[in-house]
Amino acid sequence: MIMINEVTKTFQDKKQFVTALKHVTFSVKKGETVGLLGENGAGKTTLLRTIATLLAPSEGTVTVAGFNTIADPNEIKKRIGVLFGGETGLYDRLTARENLEYFAMLYGLSKHETKVRINDLAKMFGMKDYLDRKVGKFSKGMRQKVAIARTLIHDPEIILFDEPTTGLDITSSNVFRQLVHQLKSEGKTIVFSSHIMEEVALLCDNVAMMHKGELVHHGNLEKLYQSESTRDLNYIFMSKLVRRDENYAS
Prior knowledge:
Elements: E1 2-13, E2 16-28, E3 33-37, H1 44-51, E4 59-64, E5 67-68, H2 73-79, E6 80-83, H3 96-106, H4 111-125, H5 140-152, E7 158-162, H6 170-185, E8 189-194, H7 197-203, E9 206-211, E10 214-220, H8 221-228, H9 233-249
Parallel strand pairs: 3-8, 3-9, 6-7, 7-8
Antiparallel strand pairs: 1-2, 1-4, 4-5, 9-10
Helix pairs in contact: 3-4, 4-5
């Protein structure tokens, strides 16, 4: 479903070049839920933006649903839903409903399909009470719910979330987790970044650990627990970094 092959991404910062991704290679199968783990600056958002066709790799290739991100970006955009942390993509002067209707129109949904999808998503996220209020006066949690609904309005087969529970209270975070379980049951392919180990442990089949632009580990969570003889994902992540640094030093 998603194939990332030897992807490197370099940015120019003033007169210096910064490498955000270094020869990253792994794949995501159809129906898998993969958690991207790593500290701030590890390259998680850059990788998600590259998968979403928003950034072109400096080296390597990314294919999504059989389409190359450089050659066929429009085909990929039809099949993915994307939400980046801190970027809701909503228009403050429009109501929540009007925002969702606008994005549904961009994806070519009919009026009937749009109405059904909005009603379903409003019920799922408990948004009916403020669906016809302007987004500009919403709390951060309310905006995030509408933004997640906007991401799912066209019923995409592949969903990319970047720090999706940032700014959400406990109740809203639980709603998001229930949503991921529902999407998994529908066979959706999900990749989401997080620094919350418990969230990844609860929701993901596989995990991809990143550090300073490099892939430290990728694989099945249960197999990882078995090989490390612990289910403490935070401990596993930190020990992976320590072992990596020791290997570089030797």
